[in-house]
Structures are given as C-alpha cells and as structure tokens.
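Dear colleagues,

As part of the handover before I leave the project, I'm documenting each prediction I ran so the next person doesn't have to rerun anything. This entry is a single chain, and its sequence is reproduced below.
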Amino acid sequence: MENASYTTLTRQSGLMREMSVIANNIANANTTGYRQEGLVFSEVVQSIDDAPSLSMATARARVTSLMPGTMTQTGGPLDMAIDGQGFFLIQTSEGERLSRAGHFMPNSQGDLVTVDGHRVLDSGGAPLFIPRGTGNISIAPDGTISANGQLLGQVGIVKPSEGTQILRDDGVHFRADGPYEPNLDARVRQGYLEGSNVDPLTQIARMIEVQRAYEMGQSFAESENERIRKAMQTIIK
C-alpha cells in the first residue's frame, strides 16, 4: 500500500471517531449535567528506511467543554445546580466521581443519592444523610443542607487541583487523574438543574463538515485504488 493510502486511511479513521463523538453529543443535548466532547487531530510522522518519512493523522485525544449549561428551575427541594466552576462529589462502585448532574433524592436508607443510586458526598468524602420525615429542606448557597433549623450536612463542591485533568468515566460522571480540592467560590442553587452544554446547531453543522470530509477522502481512496489497479494491469501485460 502506498503512502498516500496510509495517510488517507488514518484520516478516515479519525473522522469516523469524530462522527461518533458528535453523534453522542447530539444524543445527550437534553441530558442533565452532560458536558460536550470534542476530538483533537494530530500528526504522527513515521520514519521509513531508505524513503521519505510518512505523515499520518491520529484523533484519539478527547477534550471536554466546561462551559456552563442552561439552568432550569424545577422547584425540587433536593435539585441542585452549581453556579460557577466545580463538580458534585459522587461515590460509585468504581470510586469517587465528579458530576454536574444535581438531580438528587433520598434512598430507602436515607442516603442522598443520584438517579443512578450513587451516594452524594460532602467535601470530606462522607455520605450525606437525609432522615425520614424531614420537613422543609433548605439549601444555602454554600451547599449547607438544613431542615427545621437542624444542620444535615454540606454538599461537596470540588474542583481539580492545578495540574489535574478530568477524564470522562461515563455519561455525566468524570474521574480525576490527580487530587481535587473544595471550591469555595462556587454557589449552589436549590430547586434548579443545569442542562447539557451541547449546542445542537453547531454540532449538526460540524457533523455535515465531517461527513463531507469523509466522502472526499473516500473518493480519493477509490481513485487511488483504481490508479494502482490500472498500473498493475499495465505491468502484467
């Protein structure tokens, strides 16, 4: 296979991955707390003995947009949205995770949990507990939860420490590759949920661009294959 074919195939592979990322973004345009993803293309240069080096494309690095989503008032006493940077701290079976999805509720044991049943933690990593029969719940901007004048706990809002990256774990959950710390500047809004930060129109426009680029690459690959086939037929004759 000639160098041009290798280069085209690596580009096509990257475009297919980007199409998958875009489709996932569009599918989650209405998912509470979802963060839009993007794909980064880069060049890989492969040295070849007794020949010019081969330039290929790769698109494996994903970036997550941390732009805020639109807040919607729900009136739910345990619905929370973060005004500012930071994440809720969640305990999953795989360990602590970060999330912007704030639709919470008490389970049968009284633990404050997500819609998936994961426990919500305070900034120190301890579960939050809402006793049965708790009256009107009030959540202060600093995340302090109280009911009838009784302090129940403080929801943890954390941010990655300097040099720490966040990596998507699944849907609306992220994991940090390093330490994180409480974010005292963020504010909690009770009775609100933060929507997805996906811009569907921009994503659809990008999907069209990627599709056209893929079709162009496919056309080039077919033309190159035809050229090589004719060249081989000429040599055989």
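The first strand starts at residue 37 and ends at 48. The two ends are 21 Å apart (CA to CA).

All the best with the project,
I.
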